């Protein structure tokens, strides 16, 4: 029972500290560094074997689940604010976006090959954020056309400016319009759903109706302990989709690629 309260205290402490550091950062920009460190600490906690063992034993309890959801809300709000600050740092030439992208390119390159993203691909990225590192890296590494969709208009504007600063303005488009996203979806070869996008079951149902049969849908998510930072995908998809999963304990989110049944086999026969 002591371990239950240790887990509960950890969740509550992270939520409180992240919430306060977000407020401090809005008053003093130097505190964004402290907020970054705290979010990094949360990711380390989330991917540790010890934390995973605690969650496996106590994560089904209602109070643990509720505090996990509160922590996810606090960390998501803080990350969104931090990304806007990082974008402004790039635009003010206080941070080199090209160096930042180079650090991430190795991890993204693995996904590009697995998901078949190449120069002729058209990628709809849902939930790209104010500092759209994944979308930028996909465009730079593959040469694909990427349409970034986000409900936060400030994030849309900042993302567009950062893309131009990175020399990728011709490869990326940004919009806060759902209708524009649906129009692009008609020609999209891939859809990427960010881990911080909520209500994934409803979104997948909409994508299934609107996307072409051959469109690959890549969903980032976090179940179990990883749901304290990411929105989960607790849904059996095997009846409707062919599933390719990337699940690694040390990654802060997991990924699944969904293809309509029969499409994967047809592609294999054409090779």
Could you walk me through the main structural features you see in this protein, from its secondary elements to its overall organization?
The chain is an alpha/beta fold and 271 residues long. The protein folds into two domains: 2-91, no CATH class; 104-270, Vaccinia Virus protein VP39 (Rossmann fold, 3-Layer(aba) Sandwich), CATH 3.40.50. It is 55% helix and 14% strand. It contains ten helices and seven strands. A seven-stranded mixed sheet has the order 3-2-1-4-5-7-6, with helices on both faces. Helix 1 runs parallel beside helix 4 (62-91), helix 4 packs across helix 7 and helix 5 crosses helix 6. It is globular, with a radius of gyration of 19 Å. It starts with a helix and ends with a helix.
C-alpha termini separation:
56 Å
SS summary, helix count: 10
Which stretches are low in confidence, meaning pLDDT under 50 for 5 or more residues running? Answer: none
**CATH topology group of the largest domain:** Rossmann fold
CATH class of the largest domain: Alpha Beta
Largest sheet entry = 7 strands, mixed
Count of separate structural domains: 2
Q: Quick one: how many beta strands?
A: 7
Reconstruct the topology from this structure.
Elements lengths: L1 H26 L4 H15 L2 H10 L3 H30 L5 H19 L6 E5 L6 H10 L2 E5 L3 H13 L6 E4 L2 H8 L4 E4 L6 H11 L5 E6 L19 E6 L7 E7 L2 H8 L1
Parallel strand pairs: 1-2, 1-4, 2-3, 4-5
Antiparallel strand pairs: 5-7, 6-7
Helix pairs in contact: 1-2, 1-4, 2-4, 4-7, 5-6
Q: Characteristics of this structure?
A:
single chain, 271 residues, alpha/beta, 2 domains, 10 helices, 14% strand
